[in-house]
């Protein structure tokens, strides 16, 4: 890590990408504030990280991981998480807006409330996290990181709400990157492909469903640990965007240069099955 002891706040840290990034960040010598809604998951992760840090140092040290219960859909929760991180660690260097889920089904079967629920977490949650963290990031000349998606570059049948939210997140990141540059604050967009995650087993209300089967073939799913290494590398380098996984890079490249191929041949093969509700394609999960 370029800045040993750097402080990272992760909104959406209880599973998937957020959990793996927390492990990788602490492994490289950083400190982390973990926020989300599932306290048992967050506490178990914090205990694991603090124990690993003590074992690595060979002696008792202050905690490197802090838990703050926070829901990005509630006004004030993100501010409370940032305040707790600064109170515990004295600063905030990186804020990672990672909380999200996916609404899926054909538009004909969806209600307006399905779209509203999708946007409340995936778009407004990112905005809340950005506004809560910006004052501290200005002080540290730090970095705001947001989990977008390969589906922020292309849209698949049956995934309109999710893709719309991730297109919006990409636009938001592009806008604030220029706005915040004079303050020394960087903005990094993370665009994952199919990553090991619980998100494809989360229904359209945001609830984890153990009976759901992951619809993505195992050979196409990218290791979450490898994804976390690439994401933390992107954070350290303050990259504009990191597209995670080879298939993700390929899909984005094809969508830019051969959109007809994606539209006619690829999109139908990855479409949500007709009438199917409740799973999405990839990204973050809280």
Question: Would you mind describing this structure in some detail?
Answer:
- The chain has 286 residues and is of the alpha/beta class.
- The protein has eight helices and seven strands, in the order βαβαβαβαβαβαβαα.
- It has a seven-stranded parallel sheet, with helices on both faces.
- Helix 2 links the parallel strand 2 and strand 3.
- The two termini are 25 Å apart.
- The C terminus is likely disordered.
Q: How many discrete structural domains?
A: 1
Number of strands: 7
The helix fraction, in percent, is 40-55%
| Class by SSE composition | alpha/beta
Defining traits:
disordered C terminus, globular, single chain, seven-stranded parallel beta sheet, 8 helices, Rossmann fold, 286 residues, alpha/beta, 13% strand
Offer a quick outline of the entry.
With 286 residues, the protein is α/β, with parallel strands linked by helices. 45% of the residues lie in helices and 13% in strands.
What topology does this entry show?
Layout: E1 7-11, H1 16-27, E2 31-36, H2 39-57, E3 65-69, H3 77-89, E4 94-97, H4 112-140, E5 143-147, H5 160-180, E6 186-192, H6 224-237, E7 241-244, H7 246-257, H8 259-266
Parallel strand pairs: 1-2, 1-4, 2-3, 4-5, 5-6, 6-7
Helix pairs in contact: 1-2, 1-6, 3-4, 4-5, 7-8
């Amino acid at each position: 890590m370029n800045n040993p002891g750097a402080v990272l706040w992760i909104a959406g840290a209880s599973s998937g990408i957020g959990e793996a990034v927390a492990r990788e960040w602490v492994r490289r010598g950083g400190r982390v504030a973990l926020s989300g809604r599932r306290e048992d998951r967050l506490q178990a992760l914090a205990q694991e990280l603090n124990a690993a840090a003590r074992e690595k140092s060979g002696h008792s040290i202050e905690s490197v991981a802090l838990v703050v219960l926070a829901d990005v859909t509630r006004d004030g929760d993100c501010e409370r998480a940032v305040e707790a991180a600064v109170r515990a660690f004295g600063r905030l260097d990186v804020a990672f807006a990672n909380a999200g889920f996916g609404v899926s089904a054909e538009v004909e079967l969806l209600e307006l409330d399905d779209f509203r629920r999708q946007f409340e977490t995936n778009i407004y949650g990112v905005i809340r996290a950005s506004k809560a963290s910006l004052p501290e990031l200005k002080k540290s000349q730090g970095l705001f990181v947001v989990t977008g998606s390969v589906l922020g570059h292309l849209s698949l049948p049956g995934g309109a709400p999710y893709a719309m939210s991730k297109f919006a997140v990409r636009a938001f990141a592009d806008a604030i990157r220029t706005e915040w540059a004079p303050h020394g604050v960087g903005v990094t967009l993370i665009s994952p492909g199919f990553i090991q995650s619980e998100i494809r087993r989360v229904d359209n209300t945001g609830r984890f469903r153990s009976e759901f089967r992951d619809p993505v073939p195992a050979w196409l799913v990218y290791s979450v640990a490898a994804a976390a290494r690439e994401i933390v590398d992107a954070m350290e380098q303050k990259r504009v965007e990191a597209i995670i996984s080879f298939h993700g890079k390929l899909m984005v490249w094809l969508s830019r240069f051969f959109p007809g191929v994606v539209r006619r041949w690829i999109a139908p093969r990855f479409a949500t099955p007709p009438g199917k509700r409740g799973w999405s394609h990839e990204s973050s999960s809280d």
